[in-house]
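Data availability (excerpt). The following record was deposited with the supplementary files.
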Amino acid sequence: MGRLTIWFLLGLTLIAVSNNVGFANAEVGPSESECRPYIEKAIKGLKTDGVTRKHDSGELQSDQPSRDDDDDDDDEDANSANDIDGDGIPDDEDDDIDGDGIPNDEDDDIDGDGIPNDKDDDIDGDGIPNEDDDDIDGDGIPNEQDDDIDGDGVPNEQDDDIDGDGIPNDEDDDIDGDGIPNHKDDDIDGDGISNQKDKDIDGDGIPNQEDNDLDGDGLPNEKDGDLDGDGKANHEDDDLDGDGTLNHEDSDIDGDGLPNEKDEDLDGDGKANHEDEDIDGDGTLNHEDSDIDGDGVHNDEDHDVDGDGLTNSEEPQSLDIDGDGVPNALDDDIDGDSKVNEKDEDMDGDGILNEHDNDMDGDGIPNEHDDSHEADDEEEEVKKRSKREVDAAPIVDVEAPASPAEEFPIEEEAVEVEAEPEVEAAVSEEEQEEAVNDEPAHAVEAEKEVEEDKSVEKTVETEVPAPEESEEKVAEPEEAKAEETAVSAEDDDDEEDDTKPEDELLWEGAIPRNRRSRQHITELLQLDEEFNAREKATDNVAEIILRDIKKIYENAVKPLETVYKYRDLSNRHFSDPEIFSKPLILFMGPWSGGKSSILNYLTDNEYTPNSLRTGAEPSPAYFNILMWGNETEVLDGTQLAADYTFAGLQKFGQGLEERLRGLKMKSKLLEKVNIVEIPGILEVRKQVSRVFPFNDACQWFIDRADIIFLVYDPAKLDVGPETEAILDQLKGREYQTRIILNKADTVKPEELLRVQGALIWNISPLMSSAQPPLMYTTSLWTHPYQDGAPARLLLAQERAFLRDLRTAIDKRIEHKIASARRFAVRVRNHAKMVDCYLNTYYNHKTLFGNKKRIADDIIDHPQNYHIYEGLSTLTNISRYDLPDPEVYRDFFRLNPLYEFKKLQETCTYFRGCPITKLDLAIAYELPELAGKYKKMSDAALASIEAQSESGSETAHAVPAEPKKTR
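Predicted structure:
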């Protein structure tokens, strides 16, 4: 009876379905509420008797078919298990679950229930809410193994909404949609990897060490109070970056990929360590913290208190700790805390009280060896600091002997430097234990050596760090003693010698690994041999044009320059050195911007005994001049002044000559140009008096430069009085001025645009130019770019810089013509100005008047006689092209006004008027030289190309075979 009842109920169901034209093809059918009671009852009975089976979709399938053959397929499809659209493919294998013709990964409503996925509590329509569903999108892949959890076709690491709930990840309290809030979730992104072991916690495709938002909460790491999103505030979190390693055991506390000793922001709060009152981010201020760097070692026992990788006793710090522009040696408040040094309990602001601080003033020299307070000369202090960084043996706590060997490779005399860290690090365990046990005794010995060698200037090329030296003393004490004796003997001999220019100009350093190629420099600057023939042809034409410039100068410009004594008015001269010299490339900018590194890079002079000195601290304030020479030679100021190209610098006095340094070397680039580096500008609060006119000397180089590069460091964008004065001197030369934002690989790509904008904003207004100067953002040295830097952009900018430099070399003649015309205009304006003064003088002079009194009154009060206004009106000369009245007041005190001739009086019957010749030279003769040069150079190049083509055709010519005839 039970079985008959079941079949009866099924029959009723089928009759109801047939009256509505069937389930498979009907657009309108019985409601679910009408059929549900019958179906449930039938299913219950079938389960009992085992005749039918229930599927996830809740539909039935009989043991025997009960319809026509035409309807069999439709019934099977409609009634198959886990098959919403009844196509015979289970949902977990079906690319289109609801059968609407739209693939699941493109379907806004996967289960076809009329509710969009981002609002659907059950995306795949399996009756299990998303938060409880192990397979949200119903593709048969568990969520923790699914690369696309919500099935929208966007991989999780690229998906702004991983769980497809319509809430962006950075606003979603439950990113992976597992019903567990992020701050309680051990697996925030739902990839099956716990946060502590997950290299990408928030699943955005960016590794943690490169991710600016580690936990994906929309807050940058530096502004995030909970860096790893575990619900614990940073200052209460024992594991700041959530990597499973406690902070005091973690080599990278903030998880930014930089080891603590190299990280300038240890706790990742956006504040540099030297500005951070809580370096390790544990909520305890540095001056109250017993473990400042959070490495688990008490400050009193920690040899590196601030965790920057340098020992306390030998740690070089900034020359200006508080960044106020006043060097520490001259600063009454070194750390900028508004407390005078004498009353400051922590003078250098390092969080260590003076009574416990091994380096009280933060100059990197231990107190017991520090005599900086008694030093009479600041340059001596700079020299000691620089010598210490390269030559001195730092006293280091030997925790792992292999590490110092890797960081400080030994450089042997007369042997090329080669980094072999693996060989140097191969120290046996017995030697390690012996070195650690004997460390205190050797540290005392090393301190004695530093004290003994302090008065002796080291010029020995062999450099042996203290850790290596202590190990050698343990193993071979007699040999080490012999070496020490030899070194001291050499030092005694060198002490008697005078200081050479090389000691302050040159710098030696270790060669880095994986240096970038320089081949593109040779290519873009056209330094190959194939360009020599072309350049020789144009050089011959250039020589002709330069002689024409000299001829015009002597015939049209020099007569009035001599008559009206223009050289007494201005330092801007024009003669043979300015006409026939090589193109001049000028580099200027703040200190430590990378100017010397760029010069070494361009001339292939990096990491050689003759490399220009580079480093983070300010280099000695020298004008570095690089020239070509058969042999490498360092020149002092006297030798440079003897060179005709730079002979004009003698007028600035002996003080400037002492600040000139030259370097001759055999470089292909220096065959074509001379390169000059102006001393780095160090902005100070107090005006510093120099023994020579610094701005006038800079102007001398600016007037002769073919192209000018202002080099800036992204960390030093401020503009002070010194920089303003230099930029003011560049007015009128904006078209030749370029800006280089060097070391750009140290800036995060997302911050690079902001740094560029800040630099343009600071500089453009001071150059009185409506158009911002051309800027190159790159990193000009052979060091490989830092990880995460936009390498393609930096390399493209470097190539553009090199092409611009080559263009300046090619336009050498155009620049010479422009310089000659500018000088001619200045001489003409000066002559007409003197003539205007003279006319005013003779108009107000009386027969019995005192000519000196009248002349002095005109000179002292030119505005009362409308001299400048009258000259501008009558001669069409701009007022802004004329010197200030104070300049002429000094000029006429040296040369009395009434001793000059009027312009009309300089004219003669046979020679004509000099002013007319000068006007013709400015208006016609000099501009025509540019066209003449272009035509002659094009003809010369065409001739060279024709000769090369004819030669190649002759060389490759093959006699033709005679045609065969039948």
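Summary of structural features: Strands lie at 584-588, 623-628, 633-636, 660-665, 674-677, 707-712, 737-741, 774-777.
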